[in-house]
Write the structure tokens for this entry.
Amino acid sequence: MTQVRTIRINRVTDRKWQPQIRALEAEYFDWVNTQLDAEFQIRLDTGSMLSQDMNELERYFPPTGGLFLAMVDDGAVGMIFLTKLREGGGQIRRMYVRDSYRRHGIARALFEVAILLARDIGYTHLLLESPKSWTGAHALYHEMNFKSVPMYPEGEVPEHLRPYWVFMQLDF
């Protein structure tokens, strides 16, 4: 575990942070694929997912979205994306903190700013999805008052993996 001095949460509102976002998201996708390969022997086409996110980065910008980077010194160590999913509803995506920076409250801080922004935007609820095996993440989601719900129609999880996924919602 890394000694953490000061954590700053930066809201990204333009593409000047794209290199840091791309590097952190590529690391996130590598981590996801390692997890999915170990559990389900599958690998996602994360290269195309990363390209799509970079091409559509504005969907996480104001007025309907949010992209936050957790910064330690001058480096990005965590991220969370908020996007409009439906009328009145947002979705949390790409929540990630580098392994060596976990257990310092960074994920909680990212979630807190994303939830505050969702309320300010006027969302009435937030949705998220993750594999059932990510129990540490689920503990945080429950602490943040997310509740388990059936898969929502806009979910991106392939049908054959849905039984192994958790879908959650936070109502305001």
